[in-house]
Amino acid sequence: MADTYTEIYKEMGLKTKKVEADGGYIGGDYCHEYQVETEVGEGVFFETEDGSYCAHEDVAKFQRDSVNGDQEPLPMETIEQPDWVKTMEDNEKHYGLPAKHFLKNVVYKNTTTNEIIIVGIRGDLDVSKTKIEKILNATGQIESADEEDLKKLGTKPGFVHSWGLDARYIGDLSLKSVTNFIGGQKTETTDTKNVNYGRDFECEFLADLAVAYDGAMTEDGTKKLIAKTGVEVGNIFQLGYHYTKMMKGADFIDEDGKGKPYYMGCYGIGLGRTMATIAEIHNDEKGLIWPSCIAPFQVYLAPIGKSDDVFEKAEELYKSLEKSGIETLYDNRRDKKSGP
C-alpha cells in the first residue's frame, strides 16, 4: 500500500516523502505521513542525505552528543550567581558557555489527573510534548504548567529544581550525555555546579523526550539529520489489532479452523491539501499548470474568428479528439475574442 501511495502522488506530479509519524488519537503500531517537501510547508521532518531515515519532528530519534566527556565527575558544589541570571540565555552570557552545559527543567501538567510532571533535559534541547504523551500513554492530556501550578509547587519560572519538589520527575536521554552540569538547585543568589545524573539526582526514568535538530546524528551515530519542511498530503496508520482485539466478533476463521482478530490499516489522502500543494508547485507566471491526470480537460479547443470553414474544421477536430478518448473543452462561441 505504501508503494501504491507513492505512485498515486507521482501520477499527480508530486514527489512525496514517506515520513515516520505519530498516530495520535488513532493509535496503532506505527504510521507514516506522506509529505511533499516545500518551503511553504507547515510540517517539519528530518531526513538523512541518502534518504534511509525520514521521520517527523514528533518522533525523530537522534544521538545525544557527549559534553565534557573527557572530564571526571567533580564534587557538586553551591556557587554564587547574580539575581539577573534567570533564563538559559542569561546562563550562557554569565558563564560564557553554550546551553548544552546547563540543566533545564520544563514543567507540564496532566489535565486528567492534575499530576505535575517535571522533564529534565539538556539546556540546548527542546522537549517534545508528543513524545511525553506517548511515553505516558496520555495523548491529548499533557499541557504546559502555568505560574499558578508552579506556585503550588513552591517555585516560579526559572527556579524549578531538578530534584526535591513534589512532582513526577522524568528525564530525557541527554541527562546522561553531560559530565558536570551547571544548574539544578537555583535560588535567587546561588545555583549548583558539577551536577551529575545518577550520582546527584535521578528521575523516574529516562527516555527519548527531545525534539531533534538540524545537524544531529542518527541514533546509531552514522549519518547526519537534515531538517526539512513539507505539507502533509496523506497518511497510513498501521492499526494492527489495536481495535479488533477490543471488539467482540471482529475475527475470522483461519485455515486451521481457529478464530483470529482482523489486522487493520487506515488510509487517507487529503484532497484539499493535495490540490493546494499541486497548485503551489505546478504554476508559472501565467497561472496554474495542472498535471494531466487531474486537469479537468486535456485540450482546450477554441476556433478563432467567425468563418464557417474554421468552425467546421474545429467540429471535425473535436469529434476526433472525443473519439480518441481525449477530454476536450470545446469553446464553440462565435462571439468570443481570442481566449476562454
From TrEMBL:
Highest taxon of source: Eukaryota
Gene Ontology biological process: prolyl-tRNA aminoacylation
GO MF term set: aminoacyl-tRNA deacylase activity; proline-tRNA ligase activity
Residue span, YbaK/aminoacyl-tRNA synthetase-associated domain: 84-195
Annotated Gene Ontology cellular component terms: cytosol
Listed Pfam families: tRNA_edit
Organism of origin: Cyprideis torosa
Name of the protein described by the UniProt record: PrdX deacylase domain-containing protein 1
